[in-house]
Amino acid sequence: MSHLVNIGDTRTLISHPASTTHRQLDDAQQLAAGVSPDMVRISVGLENLDDILWDIDQALDKASR
User: Which residue windows are transmembrane per the record (predicted)?
Assistant: First the structure.
């Protein structure tokens, strides 16, 4: 999984809208747009589903430590 802002790729991408695509907005504007500080966006690509799920599982495991 790549941490990128652009979308439209065939690979699975993950981004943090509050610090990338919506960073120009203040906190209230972000919330009004449906963007919370802890939100991540996953755009699922064309990789093997098991690979995508493994990547997500590994990331969540690391984040929970």
Answer: none
